[in-house]
Amino acid sequence: MKLRKSLPILGCAAMLMTAAPVYAQEKLTVLLDWFINPDHAPLIVAEQIGAFKDAGLDVEIIQPSDPSMPPRLVAAGQGDIAISYQPQLYMLAQEQLPVKRVATLVDQPLNVLATVEGKGITSLEDLKGKKVGFSVSGVEEATLGGMLSSAGLSLDDVEMVNVNFQLVAGLLTGQVDAVIGGYRNFEATEIREQGATPIIFPVEEHGTPMYDELIVLSAADKSDDPKIKAFVAALKKGTEYLRAHPQETWERFIKDYPDMNTDLYKTAWIDTLPFFANDPGKLDVERYEAYGAFLKEHKLIGEDVNVMDYAVETE
To answer: Start and end of every SsuA/THI5-like domain (predicted)?
Structure first.
């Protein structure tokens, strides 16, 4: 597996030069789901404030070149933590991949169905006969199907168009009338920056059960490892500090990642704050079961997934 970039540990060298005495810390590798961005802010801030170091951890954050690989690498012992998605967890369970959800980063959906003013779409009923862009088949189609069902429609009433991750471009150029799979904290802002007015339909308000957008996975046999518990505790401290000091943490973030210093990412940094889990280790079993039933109903999984086999609460 070729990794695109191993991210620097923020301020680590400077701290090691000044700290005395120096104690050995446990190495812990975090494989991201995507390139570093504001959705990962609690991780970044936990590193900024030394929460990982205080927990006895030497954390390395890695961006993979293939976003589908982190859970598989962790299952194979080639990483300690993978950032993933709750919907993907059920697919991994169907494959019997030995991973477990040990924490949550974003505990609400970010996914929305989006369109823009001028398309004649002000309600889901208006999607009948329209083209809807998507990037990833499977979960996005099931999500759209659930939304349409809540409005008395079905997937047969729309034309699905694969826009290959060009959601905003596809929408604004007229290739499609609406898109599913965009994030409310990114694509909605990007649409505004392009001079259009977005109209969004949050998935959880229209036929899709609540779910965690971003979750933290470990190998199944490592889910109760003390260093995993230490990581989750430090992540909570990062979230708390981030919420209390959004501007300070943003300024430190763009100092370390200057290519992120844009209006889009600055807005996302603030807009994402309400969506981070207050207690990352907490597990809502009933909610996980309800989302699994939704996926089964839409034939994305063939059998019930026992949540407790693939998710644990971390205290």
So the answer is: 37-248
Summarize pLDDT for 212-234 with one digit per residue, the tens: 999 999 999 999 999 999 999 99
Pair 313, 283: CB distance under 8 Å: yes
Round to whole Å and give the CA distance between 28 and 12.
Answer: 14
Q: Look at residue 168 and tell me if it is in a domain.
A: yes
Residue 292 backbone phi and psi in degrees, to 5:
-60, -40
Residue whose C-alpha is closest to residue 70's, from 46, 45, 40, 41: 40
Q: Does residue 103 contact residue 237 with C-beta atoms inside 8 Å? A: no
Q: CATH number for the domain including 65?
A: 3.40.190.10
CB atoms within 10 A of CB 4: 11
- The model's pTM is 0.90
Q: pLDDT (tens digit, 9 = 90+) per residue, 39-93? A: 999 999 999 999 999 999 999 999 988 988 999 999 999 999 999 999 999 999 9
Q: Report d(CA 237, CA 52) in Å as an integer.
A: 9
Side-chain-side CA neighbours of residue 197 (13 Å): 6
Phi/psi of residue 44, nearest 5 degrees:
-65, -45
Torsion of CA 306, 308, 310, 312, to 10 degrees: 160
